[in-house]
Amino acid sequence: MKILIVDDNESLASVVQEVIEGENHDTMTARDGESAYSAYLQFKPDLVLTDVYMAKKNGIELMKAIWQHNPDTKVVLMTGSLSILGDPIEEAKKKYRVNILRKPFSRKELITLLHTTS
């Protein structure tokens, strides 16, 4: 499976990438919503694992832009706080096929989510 990892925290993105590649998936990373959208168009991933709170374009905006191209792309929103964008996140969970991965998360939680999302 091809997975795009989007997070403005470079250290976290690197660790997530290492774990995912250890599960034999192809990855690409991006640091913000705008560069992630370009990466999506180039890489054409099966799954986008994105932070919610980022500069330029947040994870929900990114998700909606991606689904204009391919509504079947699976999305996992990573966030440490659901309170700031709580309503849009809850709406996304109901309206779209999106999963939430609460930060901080364990390696096991990440791998389990990957297996249930694929």
Protein topology:
Layout: E1 2-6, H1 10-22, E2 26-30, H2 33-43, E3 47-51, H3 59-69, E4 74-79, H4 86-95, E5 98-102, H5 107-117
Parallel strand pairs: 1-2, 1-3, 3-4, 4-5
3D structure, described in words:
47% of the residues lie in helices and 22% in strands. By secondary structure, it is an alpha/beta fold. The chain has one domain: Response regulator (Rossmann fold, 3-Layer(aba) Sandwich). The chain has a five-stranded parallel beta sheet with strand order 2-1-3-4-5, with helices on both faces. Helix 3 links the parallel strand 3 and strand 4. The longest helix is centred in the first third of the chain and has 13 residues. The N and C termini lie close together (8 Å). The mean pLDDT is 89.
